[in-house]
Amino acid sequence: MSTKRVLVIDDERYIQEIIQIALETISGWQVVTANSGLEGLDMAEQKQPDAILLDVMMPDIDGLTTFKKLQANPATQSIPVILLTAKVQAADQGRYQDLGVKATISKPFDPLQLPDQISTLLDWTA
Length: 126
Hints:
The protein is built from five helices and five strands. It has a single domain (about 5-120), classed as Response regulator (Rossmann fold, 3-Layer(aba) Sandwich). Helix 3 (about 65-70) links the parallel strand 3 and strand 4 (about 80-85). The protein is α/β, with parallel strands linked by helices. The model has no long low-confidence stretch (mean pLDDT about 95). Helix 2 packs parallel to helix 3 (about 65-70).
């Protein structure tokens, strides 16, 4: 399997670092990070990641708005997006799926399980 590239869009630096360490150390994936929705939109277009982990709650442009902009851009609309969220209510989950979000991972998450969780959600087989 080729090395996967994952873009992490989260305004909390320590969350970015935890995800980056887990994915690079455990799975050997390449991780690129963005601190905001706007930066994430640029990074997604430039880096063309295999997947995006996107925080829902961010200042300025929130995760759902960022997701809609990713979907509106032909260069990024086919990249699968997994939302990172503390809101895991069924109504929210259904709404995210209706929008076309690939999956959600609830915060807090177990960093040691994160690579397997992403692989399973995106059907990335070894």
